[in-house]
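Here's a chain:
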Amino acid sequence: MPAISTQTSRIVVQTAADIMRRKLITLKPSDDLFDSVARLLKDNISGAPVVDDDGTYLGVLSEKCCIAALTEAVELASELGLHVVKVSEFMTRDLVTIGGDLCVFDAIDHLLKKRISGAPVTDSAGHFRGIFSEKTAMQVLASALMEGLPGTNVESYMNLDRNRIIDENDLLLDIAHKFQETPYRRLPVLRGERLVGQVSRRDVLKAELRLASEVISSSGHQKTPSERMKAVGQSQRVGDVMDTQASTASPTTDLLGITQRFLNSPYRRLPIIEHGKLVGQISRRDLLQAAASDMSPRKESRGAETLYLSGNHRSAPESIS
């Protein structure tokens, strides 16, 4: 569904209700945490809303919540003499990359078609330049909606923060802490300046879940387990670790409002709440898919033209109509 529908040179702004997903995977606060983490990984989703029995929204169980909850068990691994996992053992090596000179709208289309939330930007020699992600694509969308249609390349929008760069010999625990302390969703692994792999939150969560299971199994065989081991071995519930402060929106929030929420928060998904009940959800991907055709400059366009967004109908240039 296009982000903006037109009729006789009038634009009708879509709202959350027009693009939100209504069939959702949800969790209950009483659900077992390990089982819920396994479910997120199995269903290939980065989080799920938490509701009570009557559908009242309570919070979100995100990858970041899960990493934080499992990290204590991973910290105990060395105490129990378990293998210390390094980045080289769980990083992703087969990567989708994009070039800095690629048109930013083609890059967004590439992310959508590949069903990935971001990709490293490299030069022709495979040297790392930056990251282009759904988050940076939100900046493109905001510019398109507020300032016109920017025709530019990936290099102008990619994230250049080199604090996210990691090494093959870094430890799982260090990477878990890095994800806890930062908004990053992926960390490039470099050998010199050459990109050799990437670690995502999902990669860490898979590795943590395996190691945490080993820790719990090993601690159960200890004759005199420490209080910390006993605490780690106790069953945790989703309600104990869920994020109750996650950003939300209402069904009437327009696309610019949704875009701004994504830009101003680290979240990839917005639960849509009406009268306290969960009625749907919008992800960054949903928003980009809805807006993609209207963001891309028309080849026949005479130049950059402003695309207005508000709750009211406004006249628009014919090239947008």
Summary: Residues 250 and 272 are 5 Å apart (CA to CA).
